[in-house]
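Morning F.,

Quick status update on the modeling queue. The single chain you submitted on Monday has been processed. Sequence for confirmation:
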Amino acid sequence: MDVHLFPKQYQAWEYLSEDNDVVTEVLYGGGARGGKSAFGCIWQILRRIKLPGSVGLVCREKLTNLKDTTIVTMFEMLKMMHLTSAVKYNAVDKTMVFSNGSKILFRELMFYPKDPEFDRLGSLAITDLFIDECQQVCEKAISVLKGRFSLLNGKDEYGNKWHTIPKALYTCNPKRNRIYTDFVKPYKVGKLPPHRKFIKALPIDNPYVDKAYIDNLLKADKVTVQRLYYGNFEYDDDPATLCDFDAINDLFTNDFITPVGANYCSADIAGKGHDRFVATHWTGNYCRIVIDKPYSPGKEVETDLKNLMIAQKIPRSLTVVDADGIGSFLESYLEGIKEFHGGGRPLDQRYANLRSECYFKLAEMINNRKIKIQCTAEQRERIMDELGALKQLDIDNDTRKKTVITKETMKVILGHSPDYMDALMMAMFFRRTKPTQGARVKVKTFQN
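Structure tokens below.
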């Protein structure tokens, strides 16, 4: 069988070969029309032929997209390779069976609140994995699937044994989430672990892309061009995203913001095994991350905050602490501090709750370049990731009050709790303003 791959695809093929006993995960993509889905389907087909009795799993977040795109591409590749007659496809079970006993299972990876642990995937036994448009899939689903690689040995019809290590191919368009943190960022700084590889495939890498398509793509808006032509992972095309990427970058270099004004403190509390303990010290709109611990016992939290308020001359009335969880005990020991209840009543009734009001205020100040943050390089990366996950809920619904996605959803996107962003958000408690009533008009009806 003669299969032609262009250079970027061939590079991925070598990493994913059963002869390579080091690489287990490959992220392939970054731009539009980089041959992502086609390569993934070709890889799966050839693996099934070479490894009789093996099982490949092909996934996308939504079943409709899986059927309308990936499965369609799979049949196109089978036709190109003259193998259509060698497979039987069950559209009900979403299973493709090869004549040598190999199978490809097609599954969706949508996150459902009723199945947060993806128990529906628990009985699978697979040889390899292909997730198309991986940037849309939550980290938990991928973590569960990594435990399903159990069918790694077999025999062909002549009794020859085959063996492979787990292999996973993720294709993607740019997104600043788990794929950025796990693959792209370490790749940029030369710290990608040996078992992972990132191949940046752009439209210009695909010799079969029509020039008219590229010309038209370059006429799109800045975000689209940066993402789909240049493969820039730092730009997000989701209209629900509240913070502009360039404004997030500027947070750490807005040197015209100086530490002038009143001193404030906001803290997101974490106990043992729960997120992080992060506290900020604000002087006007100049913010410093001054406490950052994996967790702290209750007494230590109390002591740290008390010492911070004394050292920086922060009044207790200008200290706000998350009181919905572990921090609920603090007010009884640090009398006079403000308790933050995210579901509380906002000053501005356009918002669904206090948490949403403060997050929208934070996004407004960030986008208007009114904040400067002083922190470490590691904290900066984490803050940027978390702010990128700040999104409005039901953006197309004009009848509901404004709200942001839940903390649980943020955790799914990020793979961890947005502790730094929560601490920044709570500082907006002191920056809220009650909207004015505006001009009032009386209309009288005159009768003859």
